[in-house]
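Hi support team,

I submitted a single chain yesterday and got back a structure, but I'm not sure I'm reading the token output correctly. Could someone confirm the output below corresponds to the sequence I sent? I've pasted both exactly as they appear in my results page.

Thanks,
R.
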Amino acid sequence: LNDLVIKNNLKSDFVNINPRWHPKEVEKYLLDKNLDWMQLNGPLPSHDNIPWDSPNIVFTTLLRKPLERALSDHDVYMDKYPEIKKDKDYKRWIKENPHFTDNYLTRWLVGKWCGYEGCGARGPEKLTDHDLVEAKHKLNKFDILLFEEDLPKGGKKFKELLGFKTWNILKKEEEKPHKKISPKLLKEVKEMNKFDLELYKYARNRKS
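Hi R., thanks for writing in. Yes, this is the structure output for that exact sequence:
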């Protein structure tokens, strides 16, 4: 729970929570700050001292279709790096910078990611079936699951559940055609994201 962005009366601040704290200590620390809401700008910590069971805190997360995220990443970097013109170039990019392309959701839930600086030539840590089980377990700890393609309707439900009087509901942008990607590479991207595809399906079927 380090690098939490705190929003209270339109003010921002950062906090660092001691990994040795008990969940009850974390809860008290956060409640004493009289927060409106908080945002975690990073993967869930390996030291799980998050006060998931607190009756005073509502945990929510916003999910996006795995392939939509991966193909959007492909679009961005095809624009940003014109030298990436062949499948092998992009596959090398994915290996070294798997932030949004290689099972993004699963990696953030179980903490197996390289950081925004990238993984380098070594590539990301390999995911296993156990990681998928752990990711589902972590996902079940959230009180509310929001889905990007359900906005703004889902955002309105979120607003009502939390009792917000005013809240800027995010509007879903219209899906644009993605840049050309070879069928072979598209198949490989799907296979790469098998954990996220399974996790996303699981999340959609969860009764919130």
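A quick pointer for reading it: The radius of gyration is 18 Å. Let us know if anything else looks off.

Best,
Support desk
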